[in-house]
Design a protein that fits this description.
The chain is built from six helices and four strands. By secondary structure, the chain is an alpha+beta fold. The chain has a single domain, classed as Glutaredoxin (3-Layer(aba) Sandwich). The chain has a four-stranded mixed β-sheet with strand order 2-1-3-4, sandwiched between helices. A hairpin with a 2-residue loop joins strand 3 and strand 4. The longest helix is centred in the N-terminal third of the chain and has 12 residues.
Length: about 120
């Protein structure tokens, strides 16, 4: 499986992560989170594999998250409803994402990425 890097090109953290991948000679397929928003099927699979709670996948600092008052709404939603919501708008998803056969990471913490790719 090829590494899939999912980003929003204008995001500074995504730019940092992409630069890190390039500097470490890690091949990846680049995907714009808005133009190619992950599907319900992809998100369901990735969230399960990441072993992270679905809430961790929300971009809590994003305008859309705040506009929709998701901090409150998520409390009453089940996992499937949350995933459908994430798939409805790429801007709701925390980014960048790296999807690899070595693991799945949400957000960019250099130490975590380094650890995953050194395996």
């Amino acid at each position: 499986m090829k590494n899939i890097f999912i980003e929003y090109p204008k995001c500074s953290t995504c730019k940092k992560a992409k630069k890190w991948l390039e500097e470490n000679n890690i091949e990846f397929e680049d995907r714009n989170i808005v133009e190619e928003t992950p599907t319900v099927k992809e998100l369901t699979e990735w969230i399960k594999k990441s072993k992270e709670d679905v809430r961790r996948w929300f971009n809590t600092s994003g305008l859309k998250y705040k506009e929709l008052n998701l901090k409150e709404k998520l409390l009453t939603m089940n996992e499937e409803e949350k995933i459908v919501l994430l798939a409805s708008d790429g801007m709701l998803i925390k980014r960048p994402l790296i999807i690899s056969d070595k693991g799945i990471l949400v957000g960019f913490k250099e130490g975590e990425w380094k650890e995953m790719f050194e395996k």
